[in-house]
Amino acid sequence: MPPATEPAPAADEPPPEELEPLTPEERHERNQNRWLMLLTVIAVAAAAAAAYAIFEAQDAKDAAEDKGAVNSLQADMEVLREQTTQRLDEVESRLDEAANTEDVTKLQNDLNDLDKQVKDLDQQESGSDNVTNRLDDLEQRIEDLEQKD
After folding, report:
1. 77 and 115 in contact (C-beta within 8 Å)?
2. Sequential pLDDT tens for the chain (149 residues)
3. Which of 133, 140, 138 is nearest to 113 (CA)?
4. How far is residue 109's CA from residue 130's CA, in Å, rounded to a whole number?
5. For the purposes of burial, counting CB atoms within 10 Å of the CB of 95, is it exposed (0-12), middle (13-18) or buried (19 or more)?
């Protein structure tokens, strides 16, 4: 094994034993540079923290606006539910008041019987306007009754 040799210093760097001690001005300048770098890092960190705080504040504002929209939507849904309930109650009451099928069928049969009687009477007294007027009057009454139901 060959003996270990020390690497040769670069051509532009003086050998380590030849470094001159720093003057007080150079030491002061190096200290200033260190403090300047430290303050730069602190300033960048503060700017990042401020940006983060701004984004968090905006998110909080958006969340509050969303909550307001949700509350508004809930109020609208409550009003809609109340209106729907009222309308259903109205329809149920109308259904309760409406005539059932048996009543309508009975009225239709009565109308047909009356129509037949009138035709029979009309054939017996073919020139009578009185019977026709009575038939029209009865039909009008039946229509009025059907419309009520």
Report:
1. no
2. 555 565 555 556 555 566 678 888 988 999 999 999 999 999 999 999 999 999 999 988 888 888 888 888 888 889 889 999 999 888 888 877 776 777 778 888 888 888 888 888 777 766 556 767 888 888 888 888 888 76
3. 138
4. 23
5. exposed
- 131 neighbors 122 (Cβ within 8 angstroms): yes
As given in the structure block, the two tokens for residue 113 are 């019987």
Cα dist from 26 to 22, 23, 114, whole Å: 6, 5, 129
Within 10 angstroms of residue 96's Cβ, the number of other Cβ atoms is: 7
Residue ranges covered by each domain of the chain:
99-149
To the nearest 10°, the Cα dihedral for 38, 40, 44, 46? 70
